[in-house]
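Name: Ysc84 actin-binding domain-containing protein
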Amino acid sequence: MRARRLTRLFLSSTVMVGMLGLSTVGHAADSSTEQMLVDKATLAVQDMFTGAKTTDRVYRYLGQSRAVMVCPSIFRMSIGIGGSGGGCLLLSRDARGSWSDPAFYRFGSGSIGFQLGIQSSAIMFFVMSDRGLQALLDSQFQFGANAAASFATMGSGIESGTAGRSNTDIMAIQKSEGLFAGVALSGAKLTVDSDANRAYYNQIVGPTEIVISMRVNNAGADPLRAILSRYNASAAAAMTANPVVGGSSSSGDITSSGEAQLTPYNSAPVVNSGSGIQSQSLAPLRSRPSVPSKSY
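Structure predicted for Ysc84 actin-binding domain-containing protein:
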């Protein structure tokens, strides 16, 4: 009896891992599905900040970030062969602080091990430099393999990544539920979800047009943009009340406690990376044309 239960568990797990793999390849364009991801991301952001003080690192990272990526539900399973998968949203802000609409991405990773378990994680990436944003705007970004951007991770069980002295381009914080300690980012890939972008904005549009040019808008994303603006206003007020001075512990190197010393987003240096990716200045102020939105 026990052997049969283990067999059923193995077969079910294998099917679910296969589904994870398929989710990273593509899916049919369905704007209602994309709106569900946007709504989940809004709740995930709220959950990340609920209970946090304005002096906590999650507020500091948001206040200093150039962009954010929200992955509201990264599902991980492992039974001999494992993997993680889920949808993510990238939003940037212009020089005035207005948030763009979201560009859709797919998160995927694979692993081989002997763990047995299931986990669902919400991950929020804080893009601290134009260099980091430009790396994510590529059609595919792989953590640990992309020389154009370094990353560091904080939170329950996430590995520390590739950050060095004063060069952390992407910070990550996660909240997890399940049997695993955390989602491993090294080797994981973020891929532009062109089908989702087309479905959500009713036209062929890429991440640069969405988050840099800000030439499209879907009213369904307004709550997500609004909640980021609300928490960012609190972060800005906290930074004004407690300004970073010289070599204080809130900007520069990564400390032994895992806190990163960071540069405000609007003063990030312009850098030509060795991989040919070039950072760019903040997006200019401009009006935001809207596209007809569907009822969901």
